Amino acid sequence: MNGVSLLAVLLPVLMLAEAQPREQIYADTGPAAPRFDKGHLLSLQRPNRLKVFRPGGALAFDVVVSCPGSEACSASAVAVDGRGRVAVSVGTPGRQSGIEILTASGQREGFIATQEYVANALCFDSGGNLWSLGFQRDRHRPDVEEKEDYFVVRKFSPDGAPMGGYLARSLWPGAKSQPGRAGGGYWTMSAGGGRIGAVIHENHSDNPAEWMEWNERGELVSRTVIPSAPFPRAYGSDGRLYGMFGEGPSRQLQVLDTASRTWHPVAAMLPAGGSLESSFLIGADGGDLVYRAGARLLWVRPGPR
Fold this sequence. Notes:
Layout lengths: L2 H17 L2 E4 L9 E3 L2 E6 L3 E5 L5 E6 L9 E7 L5 E6 L5 E6 L5 E8 L1 E8 L5 E7 L14 E6 L5 E7 L20 E4 L2 E6 L9 E6 L4 E6 L7 E3 L5 E5 L6 E6 L4 E4 L14 E6 L2 E6 L2 E5 L5
Antiparallel strand pairs: 1-24, 2-3, 3-4, 4-5, 6-7, 7-8, 8-9, 10-11, 11-12, 12-13, 14-15, 15-16, 16-17, 18-19, 19-20, 20-21, 22-23, 23-24
């Protein structure tokens, strides 16, 4: 058999092997909707309990996150970098806010004091820099949003130093609800394809939801109104937003085309016996989407548009 004939025989086999979903069993993550980020499974249970599972499914740590100088503490967002370090946004009602940095084993490594700025969403980019999405409190009235213009998005270096602010609050003139306030306890910001993507104004009555993307220099790349933000959803390494729409047997996986501002159906490609009705989309890993089905996590390459 010559080389061309052998390739013709092997190519379909190799393609099938590459397309085969893989799965991993994870321990109980609790009732909270978990986040899959850089191979880790993150489960943040209010007010401040955090479980982190390493790639492979082993529990890395289970801790109650603390706030410096206060026994009362609430955690609102979590993210992990490529080394397993974890960032957690914390705060107490009416007091200063900040971001705890934990080691891969759950020990406190540092604290970024953000003062009146409340980080409601976090993610790390490909360079290990930390991004936050949030809102600014009035210094004298902490229950009220700052009236002066401020940056909704902030960037910090791997060692926690401020690197800049982006997306001015004035991009939403007249909006009563804060664009940096996260909705529903679910992830609203993620990194993929050299970009950062965020859902703005999710579940807000006075503004439609928007999907916004910016590059790692903080330059706005796209801004797309999405009247109904999908839940659950995932931001792929290809820089595309995937989401589930519909209920029951009619549930469908779709991908957002920011150029035309429309959603397009794609095949989920779940293994035999699996269905979108019984699977929960929790993130992306390489070219795969990651679903949770009970204690199993499934890595599945979506089909083309």
